[in-house]
Specification:
Length: 237
């Protein structure tokens, strides 16, 4: 199997709209749900809990200390002293197409000045206030006319870019159909097989009369999350 893993090298952290220079480590947020114990005499001898409030926790970073990075490292230190709340954004490499956007308070700022010849460095910790926004850039997906099926199959609901599940009904005598997808960007696959935009797929063999066969259309643009459409093809009894 070929892995889909991507390198995290190139991740950046911006503070108040400016990238912090020469970071060597960035720790994204770890969200935690508080729990409340609600054990009672009917709990059967086991503790019971319900979910409480969400806490987005902290983010942190380390890097080479750059005194000339006035809009990055030095601004973080100044906002730490002033206790100023700012927007922080962690942006993963293009291949991962993911960002975290948060409102933060810099709670710790430390310079590290070793005497063994190693570089001067700094460390900072930020407390997140409120809800962070986690965003994965998605592929555009199908475009008009989205997709059509052969054998006079009836599609419900009507094909659309942002509708991802369909029922396709065909007559009992139909044993296979093709799907013709349309997408202006990205690679299209139908049941795992690459299909050019506006071109019919290979035949999809259906089950016995009265059965339902599942098929998928996936559109994937470079450095974006794939968009998947699922078709439940119903062969009349």
């Amino acid at each position: 199997m070929v892995t889909s893993a991507k390198s995290a090298y190139g991740t950046t952290l911006s503070w108040n709209g400016n990238d912090v220079a020469e970071l060597t480590e960035i720790m994204p947020p770890e969200t935690v749900v508080d729990t409340q114990e609600v054990t009672n005499n009917d709990s059967g001898g086991w503790k019971e809990f319900i979910a409480g409030l969400l806490d987005a926790g902290e983010i942190s970073c380390k890097g080479n200390f750059i005194p000339g990075d006035t809009d990055g490292q030095i601004a973080v230190q100044a906002d730490h002293v002033a206790r100023t709340t700012r927007t922080a954004i962690i942006t993963l490499p293009t291949a991962l197409a993911t960002t975290f956007t948060m409102t933060c308070i810099c709670t710790k700022f430390k310079l590290v000045t070793p005497t063994d010849g190693k570089e001067a460095s700094f460390e900072a910790t930020f407390k997140i206030t409120g809800e962070p926004t986690f965003t994965v850039s998605a592929s555009t997906g199908l475009t008009d006319p989205f997709f059509v099926v052969s054998e006079s199959g009836v599609i419900a609901p009507s094909a659309a870019n942002d509708t991802y599940t369909y029922v396709v009904t065909v007559l009992s005598a139909v044993t296979s159909i093709t799907v013709t997808p349309t997408a202006t960007a990205g690679v299209i696959t139908v049941d795992g097989n690459t299909v050019a935009t506006g071109v019919a797929s290979s035949a999809i063999t259906l089950g016995a009369a009265g059965s339902v066969t599942e098929a998928t259309i996936v559109v994937t643009e470079t450095s974006k999350a794939p968009v998947t459409y699922t078709l439940y093809i119903t062969r009349a009894a």
